[in-house]
Every structure is written in structure tokens, then in C-alpha cells.
């Protein structure tokens, strides 16, 4: 029995979410191999080799993998995955993009966004925007799985000493090509791994007003998120959206400011340890999930909070 | 060019689901059903491409129960020219659906398949990618912008880090994200017209595909409820609680 874990990275560093995927792999059991595919991604492979519980790292370094194009990655993973019983990737936009493609190439089911491992065939996963948790059992010989990072505590990043093997497999479908990307630059912690997240909703009124959240966030070392309404209205970019169709976060502290608490938003944050809601409408559904609720105008409460930290 | 738009009948997104007492699933009896919101966005995108003169024919397709005809009629009221229902009352899963869609793609030979990135019931986010793999097409998932050019399509994708634009050779599969467009409402005259548009009914056997589920649902549970919290009267009290009670700041 062995597990192949696909590493999430930006060709320079290993994304922490991979440590959570490794934790899920460990629960499944067996030898763990990490596949790093990218361009100039040797440092990532070295980093993966140090992670706890990894026995081998395969490094596929080629132009074809630089931008994680699903057409190329899926073929690579399907080929390398032939020797493994479980193939795991993070339920990030990268993993969600190529994993179903791998499963279809192998003619097996794909199990999306597991939040718990029961045994090698049985997993839990949220459905209906997290309003129900399904226990699913897969009959296929091989399992292709994406893992919800916030549901597993990552393995240690240091301590392991796996071997790194270069993989000379080039899959270039020629069907797709990378044109450009616009990546958000921020000095704040990453949303999905931050200990504190402060999110703003439609109640923020406009993008400039998010400044008051950034100030509090910087005092607390927090990441800043948003509701879909705030993203749709153009206040902030799409990568800040928390929810069923945005990012899933589970920080120690989540503060929802000017967010009503629609089920699709709750789906992305209700596993947070402590939830604070600031809303001027005492009937807002967000208060039903909040540990601490404050009925107030956010334009008064947030600056006051800032001054008292 | 011809566009195929696969759509799904799901629980209305405003309905709060209830898990059945015997944990066999969620209670869908007498619950309002609708077209999956991402599928509406897919139909809208196809219609806009038709209005721009890029697309000549839109074929909507659904795989599911007889009642899914309702959603196909809605798609036609929104602008699809005709539709196909692959009727089945069995449980269906993404791989089986992708196989049925592949059979339809082989018959219809569309140059683009536009579908929702995920259905809000199973939250799987798989079908488009699987269809692309089975048909050997490239895929532009989580699209927030679609630009068709000669023999290719440029898709801007919403990714965790921001936005990524890829270029795909046609035929291609595109899956829609929330910000691709804002779907219109069907007008009454169009709803009437849609009643006369062709709706073909087929069975999985007609398509010769095996849609047997690979995954069994052992049980469905209600997630742990959060304990009701407290209301605080002031910012001072909030800060005090966060520091001394919750100890998170
Ligand atoms: C398929 C689908 C997927 C979706 N996915 C997501 C998702 O991933 N994430 C997500 O967030 N949403 C998602 N949504 C949208 C969701 O249904 C809600 O529309 C959205 O979350 C609402 O955002 P909001 O709470 O910011 O806005 P609103 O619901 O408009 O709430 C604004 C709140 O701000 C408060 N407010 C206004 N002014 C002030 C003030 N001065 N001081 C204090 N409070 C104030 C108001 O009382 C109100 O409660 C999805 C919807 C669909 C259909």
C-alpha cells in the first residue's frame, strides 16, 4: 500500500497546505511519496523531502509543468500514479483543476475535499455547503482524493530525510498554454493558514473602507477576507472570498464585519475556533454562529477596536 | 459554432437543507428545486456568445429525473435552442455523468462545452474536468472571462492566488465561476416560446454508457452545531473577552 501526494507550490516554496495533505496520507497509512511537478522546482523537492513521514520525493522539472496546466499535470499524475493505491492533492484551485481529470483518465471516481479519513476506502466530506457531512465509501481500486487543508493539522515541516529522484517524464498535450497571471501581492498572512482572519462584507460600502480592516489586521497579524457580495461589488479581489465557492478558513479567530451570514459564507468559516460578528442588524444570521456578537455600526466599532488593541 | 451546456437540477440555493432522521441523506421531499446557480451562469454565457454572433446554436443537456425537464425549459427560455434529457432515476455521480456527456459530445460535436464549476448539492467540482479528460479536450475551469478567437478560446480563471489566463485549442470545456456574468431572468414571452422548442429524451442505455456509482454514501449527518454565543455591549467588552476568555488575541 502506498500513497502519492501531489505537492502544491509556486516553483520556489512548498505551500503549507501540502503538510495537511500529508497528514491525511498518514492517516490512510502506507509509504508516502511526494510528487513535485513544476519548473525550476528543485528547492520545493528538497523542502518536501524534509517533511515528516515522506519516504520518497519525485521531482518532474519541465517547462510543461511550470504553470500547473491541468492537461499536462493530469497525464503526468495518471502515469506516475499507476503504482499507487491512493493519489492525494490539496482541495485548492490547482488540485480541483487536475484531480478529476486524473480520475477520469484512470476510470475511477474522484472524492472531493475530504475532511476526515475513516479508513483507506471510507472518508467524510461536507456536502450542501457544509450543511451535511457525508461518509462515503469508494469501491474503486485506486482512489483519487482532494483534501480540505483546514480539516487536518499539518505534519512537521522538518525532521524527515527522504530521497529525491528526478523524473524524466514529459507530458505536453499542446492543447493549452499559459497566457498571463495577476497574483495578489500582500504582506499579510495567507488567508487559509492565518491564525486570525478579519473579513468584510457588503456593509463595508466600498474598497477604500477596507482600510480600517487592514489596520486592525496588521495589529493582530491577521489575514483579510471578504464575502462574495464584497468581491462581486468590486471592493476587493476574488482571491479574498471566503465561502462555499471561495476559500475555506478555520482560524483561531474569525471576525465577520458587515457580513450577514448567508449559508454560502458560513460554509467557508464556521469551523473557526472563535467567531466574532460586528453587524448593525441584530437579526443578522451571522449572530447565530458567533461566539461574540456586537450590534454596532462598523464605521464606529472597527476604528474603536483599532484604538484599543 | 455550436455550444453544449450541461445543466443540473438541484435544491434551490436559498433552502436550508435538513438531514433525514435515518441519516440516509438530506430531505428533498417538497423542497423547492431549481437550476444550479453555476449552470445558470453557463447558460447565460452561451446566450451572450450567441448574441455576439460567435455562437450559432446552444444545446442544453441534463442527466437526471424526468422533472429536470423543468430546468431544460428554463434554459430554453433563457436562450438555448433545444435540449436533451438523459433520463434516469438512479443515483448518478460525476464520472457517470461525464461518460454520458461524452456520448452526447460525440453525437453533437460542439466546439465548446460550457458548464458550472460545481453543483451546490454534492459540491463535487468534477464533471467538467472529467468530461475534458474523456474527450481529450483542454479545460478552462473556474472562468471569470471567456474570449473566443479563431480556433481557440482565452479563459481567465479564478485561482487561489488571483487570476490566471490560459489559451485553449477548440473544442474545449469551460467551467463557470460566479463572476463570469450575471444571469438574466426569463421573460414571459420567452417562457412561452420555450415550450415549443425541441426537447429530446434519451436513456443511458440509448447512449450505451455505464453510469453505475463508484462511491456509496454510507451515511449523512448534520455537522456539529456551534454553541450559541453571547452578545457583548461594547468594543471594550469584546476586547476583554477575546483577551481573557477566548484568549485568541
Ligand atoms: C452558488 C452561490 C455561491 C455562493 N458562494 C458564496 C461564497 O463562497 N462566499 C460568500 O460570502 N457568499 C457566497 N454566495 C453569496 C451569498 O448567498 C450572499 O449573497 C453573500 O454572502 C452576502 O454577502 P454579505 O453578507 O457581505 O452581504 P449582505 O447579505 O448584503 O449583508 C451585508 C451586511 O452588512 C450589514 N451592514 C451594512 N452596513 C453596516 C454598517 N455600517 N455597520 C455594520 N453592519 C452593516 C448589514 O446589516 C448586513 O447584515 C454565494 C451565492 C450563491 C448563489
Q: What topology does this entry show?
A:
The complex is a heterodimer of chains A (309) and B (249).
Chain A: E1 2-6, H1 17-28, E2 31-38, H2 42-50, E3 56-61, H3 70-80, E4 86-90, H4 93-106, E5 110-114, E6 116-117, E7 122-127, E8 132-138, E9 143-147, E10 163-166, E11 176-183, E12 196-200, H5 211-220, E13 223-226, H6 228-232, E14 253-257, H7 263-266, E15 274-279, E16 292-295, H8 298-308
Parallel strand pairs in A: 1-2, 1-4, 2-3, 3-10, 4-9, 5-9, 12-13, 12-14, 14-15, 15-16
Antiparallel strand pairs in A: 6-7, 7-8
Helix pairs in contact in A: 3-4, 5-8
Chain B: E1 2-7, E2 9-11, E3 33-35, H1 37-51, E4 57-64, H2 69-78, E5 82-87, H3 94-108, E6 112-116, H4 127-135, E7 139-149, E8 152-159, E9 162-169, E10 172-176, H5 188-194, E11 199-202, H6 204-207, E12 215-221, E13 230-232, H7 235-245
Parallel strand pairs in B: 1-4, 1-6, 4-5, 5-11, 6-10, 7-10
Antiparallel strand pairs in B: 2-3, 7-8, 8-9
Flavin-adenine dinucleotide sits between chains A (201-203, 227-230, 241-246, 258-260, 262, 264-265, 268, 279-281, 284, 297-299) and B (13, 37, 120).
Keywords (chain A): Electron transport, FAD, Flavoprotein, Transport
Protein name (chain A): Electron transfer flavoprotein subunit alpha
Family (chain A): Belongs to the ETF alpha-subunit/FixB family.
